[in-house]
Amino acid sequence: MIFPKRGFASDNNAGVHPDILKAISDANHGHTIAYGDDPITEQAKQKFKDLFGQQTSVYFVFLGTGANVLSLKALTDSYHAVICADTAHINVDECSAPEKFTGCKLITIPSSNGKITVEAVQKHLHGFDFEHHAQPKVISITQTTELGTLYTPKEIKALADLAHQHNMYLHVDGARIANAAVTLGISFKEMITDTGVDVLSFGGTKNGLMYGEAIVFLKPGLDKNFKYMRKQGMQLASKMRYISAQFLAYLDQEIWKSNAANANCMAKLLHKELSGIKGVTITQEVQANGVFAIIPKDIISTLQKEFFFYVWDENKNEVRWMTSWDTQEEDIKLFTSLLKQLVH
Question: Whole-prediction pTM value?
């Protein structure tokens, strides 16, 4: 079923950007070597190197969960632990896949805004070389966070420095990294490479791609034997050119920037239109393309029927509204108009 209205449930619900579809179509001619040994994949990999640094290694996969799980697998053994926010996607929305496929223990830190701090992480950095404890090995953060907030480059660097001081790694789940880069007004290299991040799950599906993510290793040697892990993890695409073609267009034409800019702008507009509406309380700073709010419980189902969205916390009637690359001002106006009618 195709819904006539653009809702606010998830940026995954949006369609594929026309230029991405064109890139897929343009790649659909003739024969080429499978499993990534094709010219398009090589060009896409080089584009990542141009953006993040020539020392990087890039591997394309199908899914965001696959990117996160395999990134963590490459950095850990089964007796290790991964430290993350309690709201992290790897903790809440990946059906225990990180634990199942890495064997690692997830240590979660309570967070009111989706972010974790050096001080909070330090409390869990103990038991090193003690065989009865899972050994802390990775700090994993999300940029932007699951609550729509952002880490500054300074905050990322502080976490990377902390990790490296303890012979650990910093992993970034970048499912919405484009939205973060646009808001911060910095390059991917400034946000990720220059801050000391070790491995990045680079997302595109939430920002106009059909499917496909990229795992970016920022340090030489971290991808040792990774090609085998990707195969065992069922994330090696035979017709990889169709993933690669998307990323090549996405990065080369800066589709990532225009798409994320529109999504962020629409979230700001939504926030503005919500301001002053009786019964609506914004719960998080709107920094990217997500708006979190508490609204009256009795209007949620009615509102969802017209503009679908998810309830984030049923205990306090907190909802999440996500804007997308194709969200338009008209969508915001219609949605907020109905909301005003329902609360008055």
Answer: 0.96
